[in-house]
Structure formats: structure tokens, C-alpha cells
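Lab manual, section 2.4: Encoding a predicted structure.

Procedure: take the sequence of the chain (92 residues), apply the prediction step described in section 2.3, and record the output as C-alpha cells. A sample record is shown.
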Amino acid sequence: MVRLQIAVDHPAADGHFPGNPIIPGAVLLREIIAAIGDCQIIRSAKFHHPVRPGDTLEVSWTVGESREVRFSCAVAGAARPAVTGVLRLLPS
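Recorded output:
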């Protein structure tokens, strides 16, 4: 598991959405892929719960057959995931 801290003043939150900021899904996926550390192709991603500026994320993953990576990303302390999905590792 890797912990990621989303900055309270993250620039993506300014216009997404005023008065009720959330971190866009594309930004979350970029952070998750960076945490896993290999080049991947996104096969699927499901966004279950908003991530807000200042949240700490816990990212966990497993590598299975056919180089598929199943990941889960939850806000620290939350009982449910914020993002789940499947990535595919590219050949090195």
C-alpha cells in the first residue's frame, strides 16, 4: 500500500467545482499510476466516492495473470473505496 496526500491547494480543485471542490478523475488516475510505478494501459476505472483537496489516499494493488493490475484507492479512514480499476502492464 502507498499513501498519497492531495494538496489542500491543488490547482485542479479551483474550478472543479467552486464551493464544493473535488479532485478530477483524470488527476486521480495519474496519481494512482505514478504510485504503482510502471507504464500501464487503463482497462477500466470506476469512481465510487469524491476525493477532496487535503485528503490522504491509500492505494493498494495486486498483479495477476496476463500482467493485469487490480487497484483500489480509498480516502484514509473511509470504509469504502474512492476509485477501483484494472490496469495492464506494458511489456518492458
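Check your result against the sample. The beta strands are 2-5, 40-47, 56-63, 68-75, 83-89.
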